[in-house]
Amino acid sequence: xxxxxxxxxxxxxxxxxxxxxxxxxxxxxxxxxxxxxxxxxxxxxxxxxxxxxxxxxxxxxxxxxxxxxxxxxxxxxxxxxxxxxxxxxxxxxxxxxxxxxxxxxxxxxxxxxxxxxxxxxxxxxxxxxxxxxxxxxxxxxxxxxxxxxxxxxxxxxxxxxxxxxxxxxxxxxxxxxxxxxxxxxxxxxxxxxxxxxxxxxxxxxxxxxxxxxxxxxxxxxxxxxxxxxxxxxxxxxxxxxxxxxxxxxxxxxxxxxxxxxxxxxxxxxxxxxxxxxxxxxxxxxxxxxxxxxxxxxxxxxxxxxxxxxxxxxxxxxxxxxxxxxxxxxxxxxxxxxxxxxxxxxxxxxxxxxxxxxxxxxxxxxxxxxxxxxxxxxxxxxxxxxxxxxxxxxxxxxxxxx
Amino acid sequence: xxxxxxxxxxxxxxxxxxxxxxxxxxxxxxxxxxxxxxxxxxxxxxxxxxxxxxxxxxxxxxxxxxxxxxxxxxxxxxxxxxxxxxxxxxxxxxxxxxxxxxxxxxxxxxxxxxxxxxxxxxxxxxxxxxxxxxxxxxxxxxxxxxxxxxxxxxxxxxxxxxxxxxxxxxxxxxxxxxxxxxxxxxxxxxxxxxxxxxxxxxxxxxxxxxxxxxxxxxxxxxxxxxxxxxxxxxxxxxxxxxxxxxxxxxxxxxxxxxxxxxxxxxxxxxxxxxxxxxxxxxxxxxxxxxxxxxxxxxxxxxxxxxxxxxxxxxxxxxxxxxxxxxxxxxxxxxxxxxxxxxxxxxxxxxxxxxxxxxxxxxxxxxxxxxxxxxxxxxxxxxxxxxxxxxxxxxxxxxxxxxxxxxxxxxxxxxxxxxxxxxxxxxxxxxxxxxxxxxxxxxxxxxxxxxxxxxxxxxxxxxxxxxxxxxxxxxxxxxxxxxxxxxxxxxxxxxxxxxxxxxxxxxxxxxxxxxxxxxxxxxxxxxxxxxxxxxxxxxxxxxxxxxxxxxxxxxxxxxxxxxxxxxxxxxxxxxxxxxxxxxxxxxxxxxxxxxxxxxxxxxxxxxxxxxxxxxxxxxxxxxxxxxxxxxxxxxxxxxxxxxx
Lengths: 401, 643
Description:
A: 16 helices; B: Penicillin-binding protein 2a (Domain 2); Beta-lactamase; five-stranded antiparallel beta sheet
C-alpha cells in the first residue's frame, strides 16, 4: 500500500493532493489501470487462484466435478474484469447508483418471495433466464451502499443526533426482514452485522449500540422460536456439538465432524496438495462450496489456514485503512461497509467450518465455488478500489438527489 | 470546524475500534485452528485413519475333504463369475442385454437383475457388484472375458467355489455346503454369547461363505471352516474400496483338511456295479473298522446345492421315484430278511435253548397256533441242522429255533451286533431302525407281543428294521469272530462321539458256526449263493448270506396262484434283494452288505454284486495304510492345491 506514496500522510497533507486525485478522472484508461493498487489486486488474484487450486483438489477424485475449477476460474476472470471496471468508476457514480441498486435489490427480494426457486429448504434463488441468482447476496452490498449514500446526505458537522440513525436502521431492516423470511438466517445476520458496522462508523452513540446489543442478546430465545425448523435444528446441532453430544439432525453434525477431522487431521504442515484423505474421498459434504476450508486445512495444515487468514487480514486491513483515508462520507462508509461485508463472509464461514458457529451456509469469499458470492465479493473490492482511487474527492453533497 | 473535526476524529477512533475488533475475531479463528491442527491433531489424525481404513471380513478357505488315499472329494474350483457394477453403467437394461447376448440368461433373471441394479443405485451402493451369473462354463467365461472391456460396468472374475469332484459318488456321505440360512445360523450359534453369535452371522453373510448343510460337511463344520481374517481396505466416504493394504497379521486361517476312510475308487466301482439299480452298499475293513465304501444310489449331485438349487430342480429330486435324496446306506431301513438268520442262530446258541446239532424237519410249512408259516421253498428242505439251516436259509428251521429262543434273547443279541443303534459316523440322516421286543410293542402299539411274531422275527421279517450299515457291521463282527469293532468314517479329523463300539462278548465258537454256515451258502454245493462264491482270483472265496426283504405281504391268493416273483408284478412291489458277505472266506479282511432295491433275489441280484466289490477291494488292497496314517506323510491342512 505504500507504493502509491500515500502512507504516512496526515489527513491535512492528503487533502492538499486533491488535484492529483482529480486528475485521475482525466487520465486515459491505461494510466488509470496502472494507478490501481496492484499489490492489493495481486493478493486478490493469488487468493482466488488458491481457491481454484483447492477446487481442483476437492473434485480430483470425482469425475463429475472435474471441470469445477475451470468454471470457477472463468467466473473469477469475468468478475475480475468487472472489478477493474468498477474500480475505475467515479465514486459519484457509485453514490448515484446506490439508491437505484438498493431499490432494485429490494424488488428482487420481493420477487424471490413471490416467485423464487426453493433450494435447500429455503426460497432464495431467482431464476433469470439460464442463471439462478441469489439476490440476498447482492443485498449486502446494496444495503451498504444505500447506508453510505444516506449518511453522506444526512451527516453534517452539526448532525450528531441519534435520530438520523433511525433512517439508517430502516434502510437496513427492509432487506433484512425480506431475507429473514426466505428464510436465510445466516445472510440476515451478515447483512445486519455489516450494516451495523456502517452505522457504528457513522457515529451512532455507543450507549445506544450497547443497549442494542443487549436487546439482541435478550431476543435470542425469541428468535430461536421464530426460526424455521431446519434452522432450529442447526442451532440444536451446534449446541449439541458444543456439549460433545452427537446428533445427526440434517446430517450436519456429520458434516461438521468430518470437516473437523479433515482440518485437524491436516496437522501443522498438511498432507500435501491432492493428498488429503478426507478431502479426496468425499468424506466432507459441500467441500467445494461452504466447506472448502476443510480441503485447505487438510492438505496445507495449520500453516495453510493461517496463511489464508493472514491473506484475508491483509486485504481487509488495507481496505479499512483505505476507507479511513477517504474524504467523503460515502467513500468512507461504503468502503468500510464493503470490507465488513467480506469480513463477515469470512468469519461466518470459517467460524462455521471450525465449529465455533452453527451451520449458516455462507461461502468463503474468493475460495468457495459459487457465482453470486464471487460477484458480490468482487463488487465489494471494486467499490473499495473506487473509493481508494477517489479518496481525495469530497463529493459535493448536493448530488443528483 | 471544531464540530466537524470531532466527527472526523470520532470516525477515525471508530475505524480503529472496528479494526481492532476484527483483529480480535481473527485471532480467535487462528487460535481455534491452532487448537484443531496443532494441539489436537493426533486425535483428528486418528479419527481420519478410522474413517478411511475399513477392515473387511476375509472369509477363510474351507478345508478339503479327502479320501483315505488323499484324493480330493470336496475341494475348491475356480468358477467364472460375471457381475455388473451398477454405478459404472449408465443404462443397466442395455448392459444386461449385452451380457445376455453373450451368455445364456433367462428373461426373468434379467428382469430381476435390472431391479436389483436400480435398487442398489438408489441405496447409493452402486459400487457393490451385482452378480449376474455364477457358474460360467469355460466357453462363456472366455467369451465374457474378451467382451467385458467393451461393456462398461461389467466385471468378469474368478471366485473359489466349493466343489465336489466326485459328484454324486459321495452325496450322502459328504452332504453339501450352502449359504447359511436363518436356521443354520441359529443352529451354529447355539450356546454362543451375543457378540460371538453376531460375528458368526456377519461372517456367514459374506457372499463367499458356505456352511455344511448335510453330511460330513455339516458334522465337521468347525474343523473345516477355519478362522476368518480381515482385509485392510482404504475406502472413501461411500465405502468404495480405493486400495488394499496387505497385512499378514489379519490373514484368514484356512480350515483343516478332513480325511475319511473311504476308498473313492472302490466307491466308484461299487456305484458303477449297481448300474441303473437303486440300493446301498457298505464295506468295512474288519480289522480297523474303517468304512471303505458307503454307497447309496441313485444320488444327487452336491455341486448343485452349493450356489442354491432351484425350486424346480429340487422338486425333481424330491419327486423322483428312485429317491436320490434318500441316504439308503445309513438311513435306509429295510427288513433284513434271511441275512438276519445268523443273529437268530447266535441268539439261539447263546441262550442255550438250541444246540447246533438240533434237527428240525422242514416240509415247506410250519404250524403254530392257528396259523401256517411257509418256508420259501415249496415242498421243504427236509431235515435241517444249524449249518444247513443257514446254508439253505431254511425258514422252518428258523421259525422253530426262534420260537424256542424267544424274542427277548434274539433282540438282545441283535443289539450286540449293533442293530437298533443309529451309527452316524459323522453323517446326517442315520437311522437306528428297530429291534422289536415285547416292551417296545407294549409301549408303541399298546398290545402284548404274540409268539407268532417271534417266528417272523426269526426270519428277519416283521417289525424288524435295519440299515445296510448295520448289516455290514454285523457281517464284520462275524467275520472277525466276535472281536470288538469300532467303525469309523473319519480318518483324520473330529471323530463322531455319537457312535458306540461293538465290544459286547460274542462266543468265538458260536460265531465260527455262523461263519461255517455262511461259507456253506457260497461255497458248498446246494448253498443258496453257490454261484457267486468264487472271487475269481484263483482260489479265495467269499462267505455270505442272502436275504429277501418283503416289500408287502404275500396274499394267500397270490401264493396259490404262484405269483410271488418275477416281472409280472409292479417293480415297486418287488422284494428287496440283500446280501451280506465277507472275503476272503478263510482269512477275512473285508465285510460288506448290499441291498438292491426291488432286486427280487438276494442270491441272484445282490450276491454277484457283493462278490465283485469284494474282489475289487482285495485286488486294489483298499484297506491298505491310508495317507493319513502315522508314518505316511500327510499334506498339511490348507496347503493343498485347490483343484
